[in-house]
Amino acid sequence: MARALQLYCDRFHRGLKVKEVPFWAAKIFALFTGNKKLKLAIPFFEYFAVQDENVDSSPADNLLGSNKTTISLWMESQDKQ
């Protein structure tokens, strides 16, 4: 995720560097700034920080087709908007 975010920043926000922040610090920041979106997002990131991401995507692939989107392809689509 950090690598994908840095690729995005390199393309659309040159000079911006991705930094990792402990969850406790993000929670304090969200509280003091009143950032409701960040406050809602933190539990999502906390959950996936401890969950194994090795999942079998074949049921979804069979139903929807395999995902062929890469971060590079997605960024190209953003250039056109």
Fold blueprint:
Elements: H1 2-12, H2 23-33, H3 36-50, H4 58-64, H5 71-79
Helix pairs in contact: 2-3
Could you characterize the architecture of this molecule?
This protein is mainly α and 81 residues long. The chain has a domain at 21-50. Helix content is 65%, strand content 0%. The protein has helices at residues 2-12, 23-33, 36-50, 58-64, 71-79. The two termini are 23 Å apart.
Q: Provide the helix percentage.
A: 55-70%
Q: Helices and strands: which structural class?
A: mainly alpha
Any idea what the shape is? extended
Distance from N terminus to C terminus (CA atoms, Å) equals 23 Å
Chain-averaged pLDDT: 92
Oligomer: single chain
The ordered string of helix (H) and strand (E) elements is HHHHH
Largest β-sheet summary:
none
Number of beta-strand segments:
0
| Beta content | under 5%
Radius of gyration, CA atoms, in whole angstroms:
16 Å
**Number of separate helices:** 5
Spans of 5+ residues with little confidence (pLDDT < 50)?
none
